[in-house]
Amino acid sequence: MRPPQTEVIRPPRPDRLIGRMCGSYRVVKLLARGGMGAVYLGEHPAIGSKVAIKVLHQRFADDPLVLERFFNEARAVNLIGHDNIVRVLDFSESGDVTYLVMEWLDGPTLEKLLHARRPLPLSRIGPIALQCCRALQAAHAHHVIHRDLKPDNIFLVKQGERDDFVKLVDFGIAKLQDAGAGKTQAGMVLGTPAYMSPEQAQAHPVDARTDIYSMGVILFQMTTGVLPFAHLSPSLVTQLHATVYDPPPRPRSLVPDVPEAWERIILKALEKDPARRYQSMVELHDAIVECLGELEITTDLPRAGAAMAALPARGGHRLLALAIGAAAGLAAAGILVLVLRPWRTPPVVTEREAPPVKPAPVSEPERAAPQPEPAPRPEPAAPQPEEQPAKKPPAPVELVRLFLVSNPPAHFEARWRRGSKQGETPAQIEVPKGSRVRVRYTREGFAPFETSLVAGAPQAVPGTLSPP
User: Fold this and answer.
1) 399-464 under CATH 2.60.40, yes or no
2) Residue among 15, 90, 96, 148 flagged as catalytic
């Protein structure tokens, strides 16, 4: 018989960048890894100062378009020079490594704060939102649009004796609107779907008002604890379709204690038509200041430690406590529990603390019952001839997901080499990575719409049909 197979556990491959010098800084450890690169903690060997080093993946280093976007981050941040935007200290290529050196941010992201899916008090939302507005207005004044504004890109750090000092990061897909900077290809969708504006989701030209819509999504999430379309299917096609066509729910339908004036600010920032939104970050900033002033809510940053103390405790509660204002009560929390998943924190019992388990009493008849005879041991099986090792299957083809959205909804036909797909929009399909895909949208009474693309990454493929 064959000896039993033992699983071999291989140690993880060491990171080739750890210990390497990037300019004046030594790479200490990996902090995060993403689709286009990774972020490391760096340290100056002599003086010990810390930095964040953003390294581009080697497979993108020869792509001029990706390199341009990577360089855009350093260029955009350098142009703006605002206190609420992360500072880029260096940009360089060293051998096979292309990297940015940025200031070290010692604090959580807004995404980590919102992970608990609990509303924040207006006294905390206001200062965070106002700092974001001021930083983005400074960017827009230098013709820089962020285009990927989301809680992951908003750091909350300590400054002096105050918490929640905002630092915006990741201007990597920012569009510089000065002459000759239109590097983004027509029809290319960049950004994070949940925070995209309708025009961005449709790959239409965008301006500063796309950041205003994204800011509206963040205001909605901070106010209610959830995203505007969290009640729909998490499918990206469904989310993109809702972004383009569906009105968001009213925040007061989720959290009744939200002031009406605050709700109006959020809904205006979330208007589908850019002309109906706030037309600048200055307008949004001033509307927030006026609203909070009328509600007598401070816009000062919280003192160190006070921000976390204001959050409701997690342990032992089945309902989520609402944190909007001091008067938020159990009635509002009861409504929220229909929207959010209730949870209970189980008590932690260590082995030492666990009470001894007493054996159950056994009755006399049970004691006297005869024990069953042991089953006969099966005869050992005859040795089988050794199997030939199976042929190694071919490596699977890497697929890319495409999201087909049209206005109005229509029939689609997608074709690529050795494959095709038909159906009705909205829909999502998977195609081989790197293949050229041709998509045709048709609907009775409308002129057909055709487009083509190279499937390099997940993206939306929007189409607008018009009468003939």
Assistant:
1) yes
2) 148
